Amino acid sequence: MSAFYWLISHVSRFFQKLFRKSLLFTIIFAIAAFVEEQWVNSYFKSFYPSSNFLGVFKRSNILTNHIFSPAIVIIVFALFLMLSINPISVNLQINLAIAFISFLIGSFIISRYFFKENQNVICNISKDKARNCNENGQKQEKFSFIKFNKDDIYSIGFCLVLVGIAFFFLSVASAGGIPLLKPSLRYALKPIFTMPVFLMIPGIGLMFSAYLDKFKGGIITKSQIRFRFLILAVISSSFLLALGYRTPIIAVLLMTIIIGYYGKILAVWEVIIGALAAISIIIGIGYFRSLEEFMITTNTSPLYSLQSRADFTLHVLNLLSYISGDFGITHGSIILSSIPGSELGPRMMIGTLIAWRTEVTVTPTLIGPMLLDFGRVGLVIGMGILGFILGIGYKLLQKTKDSFYIVIYAILLTYTILGVETGILDINVIIYFVLGFLLYLANILKNSRFNNE
After folding, report:
1. Is-contact 391 71, C-beta < 8 A?
2. Which of 44, 72, 230, 417 is the most exposed place for a label (fewest CB within 10 A)?
3. NCBIfam families attached here (predicted)?
4. In whole angstroms, what is the distance from residue 365 CA to residue 344 CA?
């Protein structure tokens, strides 16, 4: 793991220095520095509400500190269920109850047994003046975590954004135009080119991490970091919007809001308004896309496109719940089909199972793939593991206050929330969760060894 990190960080630093020395990037950064200075010193900033605006929100401990705890996944899922026009089956209600309980156990109960601090344990008398022992002969347990160099993290994020931009132009060239301007071109996009574009999402997240460290160290001001957050979010969202995608744009906005919230860059009222803006964007893009594709008329409510999508997705989940049983029917084939080169992708495979047509892709929600692969047994284990990953990540975030762990948690929580509808089925997202789990596991082992010394 350390050798892999060393290789990635050194390669990233090399390319970052190479690109930043080029004339193009010299001009871009000079313009960005000028605009930032104008932003920071702008007279119009005085008209923007302060962090104490709508101070009533700050009186709530939950709103101030715990809006984005793992419990928000259950809340979002419940709201998604409420959007459905038709009721769900009793069988699905039972499976949802199992999923929610397993998730809560993993995130709030099992995670409690890790990263304990300030527990008094009798010292090993064979060790003279053990470094964790106090004068009363008790061992004061400490908390230790893996730290990363902020320059390495910035370089990796910078290179991921560059890769995303490069593949954006490859995607546009292969499709023969910009899908935003001509929606039919969206179906000509090739996954082999579009998937790397989404790397700019974790890329800007890692760059946010480096900026947060600079902010905490007093190197940049709050106005500067807010400007950089805004610019990176707008740039990445513009590229993703040009491809005609809706979910990745929401990922950028949601991740930025979560990082800004726990990094103390955004006030509570800004988080709430930002969340409402994200919902409005979801409704707006879905509405106008439906109009372009003649799926609805201008007389139809904008909310209807969201309701119909939720209703269709839950109808799919009803079918999956009915056919999956206790042990599933695909036994791992769904998750394995996400590997590049598979004949059918996971969503096409699910479409084949319920519609008998290979060209149909469907969104199976967060629990659909678990049910299909391993049934209720898989649902208990899968949701428990997912809850455990987010629970450990949340606990690590709270204990360390480290910018890097804020970003990692924000990325994983963002894709879990989005997965409430789409499922966690894209190979890049699965890799994020695997890497996150390995990072948290390494911290658990490091903390255990530290306190056993």
Report:
1. no
2. 44
3. glyco_rpt_poly
4. 18
